[in-house]
Amino acid sequence: MITAAAVSLMLTGNADAQENQLKLSLKEAVKFAVEKNLDVKAELYNPAQAEADIRKNRAIYETHLTLDTSYEDSTTYPASTVASGSVSSYEQQQFRLSPGIYRLVPTGGTVGLTFDNLYTSSNSQSSFALKDYWQSDLTLTFNQPLLKNFGRDSTELNIRVAELSKDASVKRFKTKLLNVVAQVRTEYYQLHSLREDLVSKKTSLELAQRILKETEARVKAGVLPAMEILNAQYGVSSREKDLIDAEKAVRDEEDILRVLLQLDGSADIVPTDLPSRGEYAITEEDAIKKAISGRPELDDLKSQLVSSEIQTKVARDRTLPDLSLASSVAVTGLGQTYGRDLERTGSAQYPVWSVGLKLDYPLGNQAAQNDYLKNRLKTEQLRTQLEALNSSLTSEVRTAIRAVTSSYKQLDVADRGKAYAEERLNAYLKKSEVGLATTKDVLDVENDLSTARTNQIKAQVAYTNALSQYLKSTGELLDREGITVSSAQADNLYDRTR
Predict the structure, then answer these.
(1) Crossing angle of the two packed helices 157-220 and 488-497, in degrees rounded to 10
(2) pLDDT (tens digit, 9 = 90+) per residue, 117-173?
(3) Does residue 178 sit in helix, strand or coil?
(4) Within the chain, how many helices (H) and strands (E) appear?
(5) Fewer Cβ atoms within 10 Å of its own Cβ: the N or the C terminal residue of the chain?
(6) Are strands 322-335 and 132-145 parallel, antiparallel or unpaired?
């Protein structure tokens, strides 16, 4: 005879211990996800690449070394006897060696220093010209745009854009991490739910098997009609199917967690942390403020907006005429020997200087004007997207709050439903003992209890998942899990690659 005490024992029993198990806490699961999840790892490469772009664009301030060298040999008909004398053909060889150095300055100008050395040798017979001589010039140049491309904003535009791009990519990495951590929490408790449901299905099957065994004995004793065996057998068969489905669901969920956490092996994953049941105090106004200040998607869009505003400002400046200043100052020397040439150059007795302006402006200037208009439109688009995202996040937070409130209320409903189902089964078992309930009645009532147990498990997990979604919607989840996101992680990846 199946007694109420026996049913109670089966309902509270645990699953048989398995040797090949991986007991996993939620904290460990989150840690594995942060360190090993492949989507998170892949996303980290974006800010690392952005760091490479920053350093690439900062290279505009690198100092450039130049070297110009050439040799020329010419034979010409002399145009003047002053330079060539009485020779019938004028032969001349020239060798030039001109090292130099230049670099960009923040105003957009270029400063450079060139040391030009020219050696000339000829067959001149003139008494008015040197046959072999060295000529050197040490020249300092400075070229500066005065309207278009003037100033630090224009000069460092790509640097600033790259910095903001990296900041935005770090926010996108944080968003990816936030989503993965939320998913890990959801799948972790989903596995807990499925394992509890598996225990429930095993308990239900064990009860059905005992009812079948007892029914067979009572039919054999002539107490019950033979048809009751069919009812009991059907009850066992349907619960066996439920158990097979529950086992498959557990294995499928374990594989999902293995991929998320990159866990090796085939050990059974056993969650050790129970779903939360404590009431969580929430104030809608505070929650929305937290979302507006803490969601990385907003920070990402704000970085894009700042970048677009800078590009718009520079694009407006580039509609101006291209007026540039070109200036230089030099000291020169000349001598039949290189030493004498250098001596005269170093004396600074033969200075040369120049200054000039150059203007270039396309009539209509349509290219620059439309580039500016395009940047203005993009900036306005980003402002609109930012406004839309603020509105969307507010709605998301409110939805998450309602989910938390609703799922918390469902906990009590599910608990009462299970308690009622247990009392009802006990009552039917007692009725069965005195012949007032059939085997089918008992199995139907037990099936209702199995459903109530499943509802209770789902309610507990639904509340915990609603809390996770709420913390995700306000951007607090990573802080609650003790996870800090900064550009240092991407910088370390960049340095390791170097």
Answers:
(1) 100
(2) 999 998 877 666 788 999 999 999 999 999 999 999 999 999 999 999 999 999 999
(3) helix
(4) 14, 8
(5) C
(6) antiparallel
